[in-house]
Structure formats: structure tokens, C-alpha cells
């Protein structure tokens, strides 16, 4: 009977060591995985930040191109279209033709709030 107990104990100890080895392997794999992730996360964040900056810059470039196109169009119209030039001169310089009456409508100004009696006291 001592022999069967010794075999059982040896098998039990072997399985304990096997379990410990398995746990150690899992922990080692997790540690390696964490090291790899920690190496790749900061560059990935920097990449995403750089892409956002590129998108911002591209949007600004598009806005500037649209502005340039509008200004080029206006310059061309001022150089070539007499009617447009006349309209702009009348509007911006307050010019008018002889016998012409100009009515200018201005947007209402914000009314200043009057101080109430309670505020004076």
C-alpha cells in the first residue's frame, strides 16, 4: 500500500508542478504581450494625432483655395465686366447716376437697455 500512496503522491506533485509551469507560461505570454502593446500604443496615438492635424490642415487649404477662387473671380469681373464694376462702385462708394434716387436700408441697431428705477437705488 505504501507504494500506491507514493505513486499517487508523486503524480499529485507532478500535476502541481505542471500547473505551476502552465501558470508561469501564461504569465510570461501576458507579460510579453503587454510589453509589445506598450511599445506600439504611443506611436499609434501619435499617428492618429498626426492624421487629425493633416485633416485640419487640408480643411484650411481647401478654405484658402475657395477664398482665392472667389477673389480671382471678383478681380476678373472688375477688370472685364463694366456692369459689375458699376454696381460695386455704387454700393461701396455711394455713387449714383444723375437723376437717380438711392434708398439705403440699414439693419436695426441693438437697443441699449435703459436703467430701471431699482438699479438706481
Return the string of H and E elements.
Answer: HHH
Q: Rg from C-alpha positions?
A: 41 Å
Number of helices: 3
Which percent range fits the helix content? over 70%
Number of domains: 1
The coarse silhouette is: rod-shaped
Number of strands: 0
What would you say about this model in short?
Helices cover 79% and strands 0% of the residues.
Question: Could you name the key traits of this structure?
Answer:
121 residues; single chain; mainly alpha; 3 helices
Task: Explain how this protein is built.
With 121 residues, this protein is mostly helical. The chain has one domain. The protein contains 3 helices and no strands. The longest helix is centred in the middle third of the chain and has 79 residues. The model has no long low-confidence stretch (mean pLDDT 85).
What's the layout of helices and strands?
Layout: H1 2-80, H2 82-93, H3 117-120
